[in-house]
Automatic annotation (TrEMBL):
Organism: Hydrogenophaga bisanensis
UniProt protein name: Uridylate kinase
Subunit structure as annotated in this protein's UniProt entry: Homohexamer.
Domain Aspartate/glutamate/uridylate kinase: 5-214
Annotated keywords: ATP-binding, Cytoplasm, Kinase, Nucleotide-binding, Pyrimidine biosynthesis, Transferase
PANTHER family the UniProt entry points to: URIDYLATE KINASE, URIDYLATE KINASE PUMPKIN, CHLOROPLASTIC
CDD domains per record: AAK_UMPK-PyrH-Ec (cd04254)
Record-listed ATP binding positions: K10, L11, S12, G13, G53, R57, T160, Y166, D169
Gene that this polypeptide is encoded by: pyrH
Amino acid sequence: MPAYKRILLKLSGEALMGDDAFGINRATIVRMVEEIAEVTRLGVEVAIVIGGGNIFRGVAGGSVGMDRATADYMGMLATVMNSLALADALEKAGVVARVMSAIAIEQVVEPYVRPKALQYLEEGKVVVFAAGTGNPFFTTDTAAALRGAEIGAEIVLKATKVDGVYTADPKKDPSATRYSAISFDEAMVKNLQVMDATAFALCRDQKLPVKVFSIFKPGALRNVVLGGDEGTLVHV
Ligand code: UDP
């Protein structure tokens, strides 16, 4: 039995790169979609927010020297590309998916309309929220927190490169250990990196728990959805 009825899955753009240095790796996206399809087959309603870091980020790389807001709009457009690729791969895997954009781009993607998103989810369709929050100076983590709260998701599942929140950076400190659960307050006091500050504050205020887990560990998403001891649960 799944532990949740409705989840908001946050995938970083980088997760789509696989071993490539840039862009969308076909084998990686196909594998990821298999895992998502498996979760939908458990009867869980799935909404997804995907980042854009594999293509463009407003604060790094090609954006250096650019006007920040312009660069951020480019970053949001990058998430639209990723969302299209993800929805396409989902459909190919037999999962009905809809992309909804926070920025009007109607010839490509339908606009985000909350009641419509809720309807799709109730119909068992996977909804991919594209273009982040639609505003510069935010991140897709914040979009995940925002949409998660709006659609009444029971949890935000943050799929990352590491398999949870650690006492210290495991790359720098080999003695670092993973928390299986930690409260928002404790994570804040200890200054642990869960999500960016805006996303963190939103989830905390809305009492929306966050689970941080590894996207690269096969079966991890399913295990999380089944309530297994996977990754780190950040709770109220
Ligand atoms: N972005 C934005 N507003 C949002 C979400 C994203 O301006 O609400 C821009 C921002 O420039 C960001 C880029 O889109 O760097 C890609 O998103 P993010 O860095 O969150 O992607 P990820 O790190 O998850 O791949």
